[in-house]
Amino acid sequence: MTVLTGRRRIGKTSLIKKAFENSDAPMLYFFTARKTEAALVEDFVNEIRSKINVYIPEGLQNTIAVIKHLFELAKTTRFTLVIDEFQEFQNINPSVFSDLQNLWDSYRAETHLNLVLSGSVLSMMKKIFSDSHEPLFGRADNIINLKPFHIDVIKEILRDYHPGYTNEDLLALYSITGGVPKYIEILCDNGHVDAESMLRFTTSNMSPFIEEGRNLLITEFGRDYGTYFSILLAISEGKTTQAEITSALGGMSIGGHIDKLENTFNIISKYRPIFSKPGTKNTVRFRIADLFLQFWFHFIESNRPMVELDNYNDLTALLLSNYPTYSGYTLERYFRQKLAEGGGFREIGSWWVPKLGLEASEIDIVGIKTNNKEALVAEVKRQKRNYDHKKFMEKVERIKTSVLNNYEVETRLFTIEDM
Fold first, then answer.
1. What is the model's pTM?
2. For 212-309, which CATH class?
3. Would you say domain 2-145 falls under CATH 3.40.50.300?
């Protein structure tokens, strides 16, 4: 049993189909649409008849009856069974989870079945397979959480479509998509491979990105999505402490929502100054972990009135005007990710001292090498002309005396030229 999770558009279904396209054993693909169970059973039976020439009894009433028949068949026949959007059984027939556990425990040792269970609603998939109180806990042999493409892959794809791409083009592709395959495919296959074209398309009246954030999240959040959206809007606009977010929401209590966004939905992540203790609450900041959602909330959802008025021209003008400043933020995340993917570090983060104020104390990147004796301290600026070496070195001296006094410190400036 393999469990495959990952956000929508990450390529789970494409990966599954590619993985088994040349297999000598057939693959049955069950898509769990939001239908009645009787309609789903009809779909599943039709898939079996189209892929495997076997007898299927008439009158199978439910999903588990179909799966039990396949488990019996798998005693003598090798095949792969994929159940996509598996978490949807929570809405269709939740008893499928416990019934499948009983079947798996009974048949596993005597079948030749490769079972792949895939799902996009991360909170539900996590609960089904990682909650010790759930019937399928501990049953998976492998759990794969599919992530966005690494930076080297994003570069390779952009080079295929646009051999003469600039770093501005690369930064725009990274800022908008965050490496999510489907978003890269939409932009590149439509010929939007330079920065301005990508940005203009993203907020045009033809853009599939306009409603994408809502399509992704409302299913996750359910009826309480308004509060979650307000929190994410505040974070996307730079209100990164819980006090700032609470203030932006008029003082309402949001502790439970913050906890769910971080630990259940995995949409925001908590970060602290490097070397700070986990219990130090006054230094905690939050960020939207998914770069596309950060971009979407910052430029599209925050300007929802323009979208409702079909005022895409002004929306695009606002995006083009504010993007250079915004992309300075994503450039920092780019270099942290690039350093992490390059290896050689045991920890990468930022550093700040709240009581001194941002300008006096903020250091963009601090990386501790794997030997635990050397550290990298780096400033990130879009353009070299905006770099103040004297101020940076003052901050370097401050961090050296504060937390890096036992490290050999290397200093760097990263700009868009270093991408």
1. 0.92
2. mainly alpha
3. yes
